[in-house]
Structure formats: structure tokens, C-alpha cells
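Input.
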Amino acid sequence: MKQVDLDGRVVYSNIVSVTFEQNEISISPNPTDGALTLAFPAKTPQYGTVQILNSSGRLLQSEALQSGEQSHPFSVSSLPAGMYFVRVTDGGVPIWVEKVVKR
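Output.
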């Protein structure tokens, strides 16, 4: 599965479960004014968390994902304009990272 590290480089990982190798998570809208939605084509990770990190990799926000949901709305409206990373973990293991621009 293709992933992007915090420097924007493409990396590959064998730690990802088969479910997420075949089903890409998506995020919209990007860029955003604050409201974002994660979409899961199959289902959320069993022990999932969505995290917001700054460009240095510092964790700014974190919230649990509800098992079985197909979409998860969340907000970055409290953050200043800039570039951030949205990371999804399953049991503490990162399974997906995407850059997001906050206007």
C-alpha cells in the first residue's frame, strides 16, 4: 500500500492489513475551511483513531473512530490556516496518511 510520510515522501509498508490494501480511505473537502469527512469504502478500522499532525509531526488532535462507520466527520476549524497531516491508525499502527490544507 502506498503511503506518504510526514515529509511528503512516498513510502510502502507491509504492516497494513489486507482490508486497507484493497480499499482506499478518502478525505474531503481538501482544501478545507474546517469541516472534513473521512470515507471508508468497507468499514473503519476495529481500533481506529484519526489524528491531526502539524508539518513537524506534532500531534494536535486525536479522536476515536466508531467501529463499523463508513464515514467520520471531524473539524480542524480551531487550527490556523496551513498544511496538516491526517493520519488514521488501527491499534496504534498508522495505516493511512494524507496532507490537508486548511484555508
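The mean pLDDT is 83.
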